[in-house]
Amino acid sequence: MYTCQICRVNRAKYICQKCGRMVCENCFVPYAEICIDCYKKIPKHEGYTSLPMYAPLFIFFGTALVMLGVILIICDIVGLPGYVIFQISVFIFLSLTVIILLLFFSQFLIEESLRSSL
Ligand SMILES: [Zn+2]
Ligand SMILES: [Zn+2]
């Protein structure tokens, strides 16, 4: 059992991918896989966060397209008129846009609170 090499209070659970120190969960930034000491040294424009932030976007757009395709096929089978299909697709795209925006916003807030607490 090792204690965290930053705060020296908690039990170490992670290893920093940058400096190799063993740190606890309070002193570790999980999505960057580095300790808070190394995290503080990263300039804000350097993209440690860019990948996890954009990944959900592509997943959602991919899901949206698949869902739209499925709904179009279902509508075609059931024989719904064109304007219903249009309304359904508009509804799906609007709700997905809201979800994506919320996701971005929450991730932004998490990152900001992380930075301000360091
Ligand atoms: Zn610690
Ligand atoms: Zn480190």
Summary, kept brief:
With 118 residues, this protein is mainly α. The chain is built from three helices and four strands, in the order E-E-E-E-H-H-H. It has two domains: 43 residues, no CATH class; 69 residues.
Structure notes:
The longest helix is centred in the C-terminal third of the chain and has 36 residues, at 82-117. This protein is mostly helical and 118 residues long. α2 (50-78) runs antiparallel to α3. The protein has a two-stranded antiparallel ribbon. It has a two-stranded antiparallel sheet with strand order 3-4. The mean pLDDT is 82. The protein is built from three helices and four strands. The chain has two domains: 1-43, no CATH class; 49-117. Bound molecules: zinc ion (ZN) (2 copies). The site of one zinc ion has 8 residues, from β4 and α1.
